[in-house]
Specification:
Layout (H helix, E strand, L loop, with lengths): L1 E2 L3 H11 L9 E2 L9 E10 L3 H12 L6 E14 L2 E14 L5
Antiparallel strand pairs: 1-2, 3-5, 4-5
Length: 103
């Protein structure tokens, strides 16, 4: 257990350990755990509906061969325009996933 003398220290440790923060300056118990290793890959996807649908398709396709997917960061969005209308939405995204580790 650690007692935090000021709220900034509490916020820092709470964020670092992924724990909720209490501003009451009470004792906060942190669970010690091993650090995870996260890998990031860059993917491209497209959709005729929307950029959101393109992102959803990217995650859906990646999840067929990857597990422990944690997030997708959309790096770039663009579209194909034909005759003054958007015909295809495209995204370039970064998918992060936690690597397996042995204990």
């Amino acid at each position: 257990m650690k007692k935090h003398e000021n709220s900034l220290t509490g916020i820092f440790f709470s964020a670092l350990m992924g724990m909720p923060f209490s501003s009451n300056r009470v004792f906060i118990t942190f669970k010690l755990f091993s650090m995870s290793v996260v890998k990031v890959i860059e993917v491209m996807s497209n959709s005729t509906k929307s950029w959101e649908d393109a992102a959803e398709k990217a995650v859906e396709e990646a999840s067929k061969t990857l597990h422990n997917i944690r997030s997708i960061y959309i790096k770039e969005q663009n579209a194909v325009v034909e005759n003054g209308k958007i015909r295809e939405y495209r995204i370039t995204g970064k998918i992060s996933f936690e690597l397996d580790h042995s204990e």
